[in-house]
Amino acid sequence: MVLSSNLWKTPVTLLTGFLGAGKTTLLNSILKGKSDRRFGILVNDFGSLNIDQMLIKNRDDDLITLEGGCVCCSLQNNLVNSLPKILSLRPDQILIEASGIANPYTLLQTLKRPVLSRIIRLESIITLVDATYLPQICEPSGKINYQDLLIDQISAADIVVLNKIDLIDEKAQINASQIIQKIAPWVRLLKGSYGDVSLDLLLGFRDSFPVRSVSSQLKSNHSDNFHTWSYESVRPFQLLTLGKILGKLPVTVWRAKGILSTVEHPNRGVILQQVGPRITLEIGEEWGNNPPFTQLVLISTEAINTKILQQQLDSCLRVEDFEVNLKTQTKDNFILSNEM
Question: Looking at the DSSP assignment, which residues form a beta bridge with residue 160?
C-alpha cells in the first residue's frame, strides 16, 4: 500500500471574504468549538493596526499577525516566511484569515511555491459572504463596484458561508443563494449568523478539495485601489457623539472596526464594527490592569479628507477640565497609513 505524501503535510484552511463579511467572527467560532485540535493561526489585517488580532478571543493557540498590507500582494514574502515559523510549533492545522481585499487566487500561487508545498497541503478555501450586501455588489445594477474581487473570492472557494442571514428575509436568502450558485455551482453552500456553523462541516477533510486554476490576469497589487487610515487615542469617546459622526462618513468608507475606550463603559472596551451604513457595538472584555485605549481602522475605496475626519473624531472625545499634554495630542491623530 502506498501512502499519499499529503498525509504527512500540515493541512491549511484559508478563510477569505470581502470587508466585513464576518471572517474573524467565524474564526472565533471555530476556536470556541474545537476539541483536541491545536491550531496555528495567521491573521492578516490590511490596516497598519491589526484590529482582528485583538478581537480573537481564544489565545491558547499559536498566533502570528501580518498587518500594514494585503497578504496576497504586498505581504506575500511575509506569508512565506511566517508559515515555517508557525509550523515549528507543531500545530495540527493552520488557519489563515486573509484580509477583506485579498484575492484567493493570488494566495493559491503563493501557497503552491515549492518551499511551502513540501510541508503544507491546502485542505480548503472557505469564503464568507455578507448576505445583506451580496446583491448590491454582484448584480449589474448594483451601485457598489467590487464585483470582480468578490466573484474571485466566491469562485475560488470550496465552501461558501452565507453569513448574516438573520438580517434578511427568506426571499432575499434564496436570491443570495442563487447568485452564489450561479458564480460557483460546485461550492458547498452553508448558511449562518454570527459565524455559527458546525465545525464538522468546515474542517477535518482527509483529502484536499481540487485546486482550481489560477487566473493569469490578476493584478499584481490590487490594494492600490483601497486606502486605510488609523486613529489612536488614550482619551475616551462619547458614544452618542461618535455614532453621529460615523453615520455621516462618506459612502466610499466601506469598513470601520476597532476597540474603543468610552465614557459610558469605563471598565470595558467597546468593539466597533461598521460595514457600509450598518454599525454594531459590542461590550468587550474588562480592561483589567491594562490602561484603556482606542484603536480604530477605516478602509475606503477613495482618499478622503483626513484633516476633517481627525477634527470630527477628536470632537467626540471626552472634554477634560485640564489641558491635554502634547504627548497625548500626538496620539489623537487620524493618520493616513503609507504601509500598503
Answer: 127, 189
Task: Report helix angle 170-183 to 147-155, nearest 10.
Answer: 80
pLDDT at 95 over 60: yes
Q: CA-CA distance, 250 to 236, in Å (whole number)?
A: 24
Distances, alpha carbon 27 to alpha carbons 33, 97, 140, 318, in Å: 10, 8, 31, 34
Residue 116: what pLDDT? Answer: 87
Same domain? For 159 and 262 the reply is: no
Which residue among 203, 237, 258 closes a domain? 203
Query: Among residues 337, 335, 340, which one has the least CA distance to residue 233?
Result: 335
3-state secondary structure of 147: helix
> Greater confidence, 201 or 205?
201
Q: Say yes or no: 149 and 270 in one domain.
A: no
What integer pLDDT is reported at residue 217 of this predicted model? Answer: 45
Residue 251 belongs to what domain range?
227-316
Instruction: Give the percent of the chain with pLDDT over 70.
Output: 73
First to last CA, the chain: 49
Confidence grade of residue 34 (pLDDT, cut at 50, 70, 90): low
Produce one character per residue of 164-180: b if its CB has 16 or more CB atoms within 10 Å, e if not: bbeebeeeeeeebbebb
CATH of the domain at 235: 3.30.1220.10
Q: Look at the pTM and tell me if it is higher than 0.85.
A: no
